[in-house]
Amino acid sequence: MDDHKVDSQKYVNLKITDEESVICSGIRDLQPSDEIGENKQPLLMDIPGSIASTLKMFKKFAFWSTQPMVQKDEYVTSNRCITPKRRAAEIRAEPYALPIGFMWVLVDLANNIELEELYKLLNENYVEDGRKLFRLDNQPDFLKWALKPPGWKSDWHVGVRVETTGQLVAFISAIPGKLRCYNKVIKVVDVNFMCVHKRLRGKRVAPILMREITRRVNLKGIFQAFFTAGVHLPTPVGSCRCWHRFLNPQKLVEVRYTPMSRNLTVQHALQLYSLPNETKTKGFRPIREEDMDQAHKLLEKYLTRFKLCPVFSKDEFSHWFTPKPGVIECFVVTDAKNQVTDLASYLCLPSTVIQHAKHKTISAANAFYNVATKTSWSDLLNDTMISARNNQMDVFNTLEQMEIKKHLATLKFVPGDGMQHYYLFNWRCPPMEPQHIALTPL
Ligand SMILES: CC(C)(COP(=O)(O)OP(=O)(O)OC[C@H]1O[C@@H](n2cnc3c(N)ncnc32)[C@H](O)[C@@H]1OP(=O)(O)O)[C@@H](O)C(=O)NCCC(=O)NCCS
Q1: Domain for residue 281, yes or no?
Q2: Which residues form the Glycylpeptide N-tetradecanoyltransferase C-terminal domain (predicted)?
Q3: pLDDT tens-digit map of 128-187
Q4: Number of independent structural domains in the chain
Q5: Using an 8 Å Cβ cutoff, are 366 and 398 in contact?
Q6: CA spacing 20 to 30 A to 41: which of 67, 132, 200, 291?
Q7: Is residue 174 within 6 Å of ligand 1 at its C-beta?
Q8: What are the CA-CA distances from residue 232 to residues 47, 57, 393, 423 (Å)?
Q9: Domain of 286: which CATH number?
């Protein structure tokens, strides 16, 4: 094993030190002309599992332990903020300092050149699976939709550029919304699309991004945030496993999304995962503008069953549930009296297949919000998957949350190895089981 690889990763995972000194030592190493590191495998993957998990238990969180989060081993019975609101005059007025040679910018998504720059940053550096075979490839239209819901603020589309070249090398965003947590409705921002160029990883740029977005959000009078991550930080309010239902098994095997076992050949897989050509539920169709009010009420009523859920205004509901090809698809079932009885939706999330001779991309349909009242859950989801397959999606994913668990086996979902951890920033509440969570990240 190459020595440099071990050292640099020790730095990321194991070096426990004062945060500011980490930032400073990172700055000295930073050269905008550095090669993109190929050897960024986490050290913990290189050592036996039992030792790795022991080391993780002892990991100290230089940044997160300083934040208003529920800390490890806290026993929580209340449902309230951790630190109180502050007046604008009490909030730091200037942006946090970046390493020398870098500057803060706003990314203007209405400007096609800037949108393309953001797309390129994410396309080359955003979330990868553990085996580094796939990388999320959120399309420009998806980014515009995800980052400009009602109430969006340009000040919360925050980028970092290299001063000399202007290259966009990091990004973080927030969008406003409301959540209900147990019996309280909280004004929050959803923090998403945090990305640091691979060349700048492990240099404590991410904590600066997170502090800066917090400052900007606080200045607008919001003190709570919601985010999800694949990494375990102190402390998730809940954690949901991701499940997959193959729609195009042949391609998924070819790109190594799923292995074939001895008992399951491609031929068997094609049979096992085949779906009818057409949907079967009478009245199942894409949602229309005139359905929005009824569909909004249907979802609102359904969400009252859960402990953590979004609270959508009418405008927000229309924004999130109006179909947009390649971004979001939404369906309703209507009865003979044109009443909306059921709702189904999925996000369109392609991923780049990294270094594959035949396939460049796979398309995932990620379940968004579904409500079955008159139609059975399995028929509703089966029809949604048929529509997704007819829309060229290769796999249908869902988080194990809400009521989905009891239908996963019948619908031929298989469990993934990834967990999505849910975090509330500056909010303390008891943890929740996945079936009590009804919040789907973008
Ligand atoms: C996530 C990412 C921005 C972190 O940057 P980095 O250079 O690896 O990490 P840094 O050295 O700057 O900062 C490390 C700190 O960020 C925290 N961190 C890492 N990933 C995080 C995440 N997804 N959410 C919140 N905090 C995270 C670490 O726990 C650490 O804090 P700690 O010392 O308290 O443990 C970067 O790895 C990246 O762009 N990854 C691909 C995109 C991605 O996964 N984005 C997050 C999903 S929205």
Answers
A1: yes
A2: 254-433
A3: 999 999 999 999 999 999 999 999 999 999 999 999 999 999 999 999 999 999 999 999
A4: 2
A5: yes
A6: 67
A7: no
A8: 19, 11, 30, 10
A9: 3.40.630.170
